[in-house]
Design the sequence.
């Protein structure tokens, strides 16, 4: 059966945001996700499933591994109108490996849910775990459908960070930027802060809506709190109906919580005024954590500051602290050279 995919956003009476695509099984999966996953995760699942079923307009019960493999091939192919555009990062003109892997993960999650229910015609997950090899006969592992390349995060140089801060027009915008640049908060964590989350006496903020729903207390620079005080005293509307910390300052939504799109627009405008080609919210976070590592902060402390569930996510900052790495190499190389000289004598 062929069905027409229509992505719709639904806000329930209890405030939970869900998404529908127009198919019973898929919509039930997205409704299930809305009750247990973060809103951004649910939205990403909805968008990725829309992409798949637009490319493969079949009933979910009729999808085969061949359809999935064809979808992967189509995602690697150049998109219409971008045949002459090549990404510098990997010399490819199709979608990035990370995007394709994320879409396959969403599709696999859908079929995992349908299999767990046990009341549909689905008897197997059509998303292959990997392509078989001779070695796979021994260890049951094959070649991944999409090879992932782990790249070092891009960061801002001190001069670039200073230019970005100077280009911001309000204390609100500066406080939000400093929360990411000096505290390492994620964009969603900045927007999720409430007035009661500010621990001024401790110079910390309480992150109640971290990634995966995890909470933590984050130390913050006095510079951030000084900027925040100016925003609260002079800019934040006193009649705002919300307890969200950062709100819209003017226009018809004045006093309402600032949206992710609003923050992205603020950052894009500031980058343009500063003459920067990069400087996203996530790059500000990476910049903070990299500088902390370069200053000698332990990986365990950076893990707690960043809110990483696994130390493996934090270990990337080992490679970004160039001065630290160079010093460690020189120390080890000097020891090796001394040992070789001793043997030569």
Sequence:
């Amino acid at each position: 059966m062929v069905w027409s995919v229509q992505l719709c956003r639904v806000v329930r009476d209890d405030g939970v945001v869900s998404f529908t695509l127009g198919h019973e099984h898929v919509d039930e999966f997205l409704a299930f996700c809305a009750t247990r996953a973060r809103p951004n995760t649910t939205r990403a699942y909805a968008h990725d499933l829309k992409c798949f079923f637009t490319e493969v307009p079949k009933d979910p019960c009729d999808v085969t591994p061949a359809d999935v493999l064809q979808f992967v091939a189509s995602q690697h192919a150049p998109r219409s109108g971008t045949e002459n555009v090549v990404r510098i990062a990997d010399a490819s003109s199709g979608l990035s490996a990370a995007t394709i892997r994320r879409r396959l993960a969403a599709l696999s999650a859908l079929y995992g849910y349908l299999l767990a229910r046990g009341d549909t015609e689905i008897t197997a997950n059509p998303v292959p775990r990997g392509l078989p090899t001779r070695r796979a006969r021994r260890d049951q592992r094959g070649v991944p459908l999409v090879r992932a390349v782990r790249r070092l995060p891009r960061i801002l140089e001190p001069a670039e960070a200073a230019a970005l801060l100077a280009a911001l027009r309000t204390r609100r915008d500066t406080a939000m930027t400093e929360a990411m640049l000096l505290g390492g908060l994620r964009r969603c964590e900045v927007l999720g802060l409430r007035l009661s989350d500010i621990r001024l006496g401790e110079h910390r903020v309480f992150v109640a809506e971290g990634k995966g729903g995890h909470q933590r207390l984050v130390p913050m620079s006095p510079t951030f709190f000084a900027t925040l005080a100016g925003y609260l005293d002079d800019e934040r509307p006193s009649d705002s109906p919300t307890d969200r910390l950062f709100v819209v300052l003017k226009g018809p939504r004045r006093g309402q919580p600032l949206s992710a799109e609003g923050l992205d627009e603020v950052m894009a405008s500031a980058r343009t005024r500063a003459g920067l080609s990069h400087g996203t919210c996530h790059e500000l976070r990476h910049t903070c954590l990299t500088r902390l590592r370069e200053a000698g902060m332990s990986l365990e402390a950076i893990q707690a500051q960043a809110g990483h569930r696994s130390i493996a996510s934090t270990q990337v900052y080992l490679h970004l602290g160039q001065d630290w790495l160079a010093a460690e190499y020189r120390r080890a190389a000097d020891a090796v050279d001394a040992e070789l000289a001793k043997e030569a004598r």
Summary: Residues 85-89 have pLDDT under 50 and may be disordered. The chain has two domains: 8-80+90-130, 158-325. The chain has 15 helices and five strands. The first strand starts at residue 8 and ends at 11.
